[in-house]
Design goal:
Length: about 350
């Protein structure tokens, strides 16, 4: 299929190929998805912050609505990166970048004379609680509390608000995606530097950065950390290839709606994860990081320790019950494929 520049595409009449509109396509998941959509026979359009690099921008809701009207598939990955310190300003930007953009898309879909057949909205498996006792599925998982969980819950509440009778909706509760993204890059950097041992949880000086947000903020205002787990907290992950395959699977299986966990069945723990990363980068040494050292490192990197200290134990009940087969279930094989 011939691809056109953004300027050209705006004036090219729509063909008989179905159109997929991707919002927030500049991230590494979005970039991978755009190529896959074209391989699947879609013509792609994008919505983003930069007008010159997208077919529509968030500052032009009229053009955005025209783009969505008549499309077959809408995918939303819009949202400010959570790879930052949770200052008051960053917290509000993280919230607004998800809630407000989803609200704008809802208005566009509701106003469309030919609304999309399917709308996939990004989400996060961080919506579940810190779990070390049992896995969390869509049917019996316990939602957590605090800032990250409130963002995830508010995002889904906005997405599923109201009735869109002609549009199937699914929220993608993705585990930490392993690929050319911030999560893997930070952990791999630690492994390469020889400090890729397990990160030890424990109590820390109280702070308020993880306090709840939104109309019904949850959790304690002052955060002191989880009890020690000695590197054995769970780490749910998913390979970028399986994320793209899961999106295609949901696209072609009309019975899949609501929240859907996208997480490898091969859940690992922090100690085994760091061992796999050290082997992938051929670093025999891995110095463990006690809580105090981890907090110093994260402050220098302008990140939050929640990335590695929350125990995420998520299973993809809905996808596996529907027959989806994850190709990447071994953390060592996945790490080698991505880091070598």
């Amino acid at each position: 299929m011939i691809q056109h520049s953004v300027a050209e595409r705006s004036s090219v009449p729509r063909s008989h190929a179905p159109i997929a509109v991707v919002a927030g396509a500049s991230g590494f998941i979005g970039r991978n998805l755009l190529g896959a959509l074209r391989d699947w026979g879609y013509e792609t359009r994008t919505i983003g912050r930069a007008p010159g690099a997208n077919d529509a921008s968030w500052d032009d809701p009229t053009r955005m609505a025209k783009l969505i009207d008549g499309s077959d598939l809408l995918v939303n990955f819009a949202g400010r990166s959570v790879g930052c310190r949770y200052t008051d300003r960053n917290r509000q930007e993280i919230w607004d970048s998800r809630i407000l953009t989803t609200r704008m898309l809802t208005d566009a879909v509701r106003a469309a004379s030919e609304p999309p057949r399917l709308w996939l909205n990004s989400g996060t498996a961080t919506i579940y609680r810190h779990a070390i006792d049992r896995p969390q599925s869509e049917s019996d998982g316990d939602l957590g509390e605090g800032f990250s969980v409130d963002v995830a819950r508010g995002w889904e509440d906005e997405f599923f608000a109201g009735d869109l009778p002609q549009t199937r909706r699914a929220a993608l509760r993705m585990a930490i995606v392993l690929g050319d993204g911030a999560a893997l890059n930070i952990l791999a950097m630690a492994a390469r530097l020889g400090v890729g041992g397990p990160q030890f949880e424990g109590r820390w000086f109280p702070h308020q950065r993880y306090r709840g947000i939104g109309p019904r903020p949850s959790g304690p205002r002052v955060w002191t950390g989880h009890p020690a787990t000695h590197g054995r907290r769970r780490f749910s992950w998913v390979h970028i290839d399986d994320v793209i395959r899961a999106i295609r699977f949901i696209d072609t299986h009309s019975g899949l709606t609501g929240p859907i966990n996208i997480s490898s069945p091969g859940v690992t723990d922090n100690a085994r994860l760091m061992t796999a990363l050290r082997r992938a980068v051929r670093m025999p040494v891995g110095i463990p990081a006690p809580r105090w050292l981890l907090e110093i490192g994260m402050a220098v990197l302008r990140q939050e320790s929640e990335l590695v200290l929350k125990s995420r134990w998520v299973i993809p009940e809905t996808l596996t019950a529907a027959g989806f087969d994850f190709r990447w279930t071994d953390i060592e094989a996945a790490a080698k494929s991505l880091l070598r």
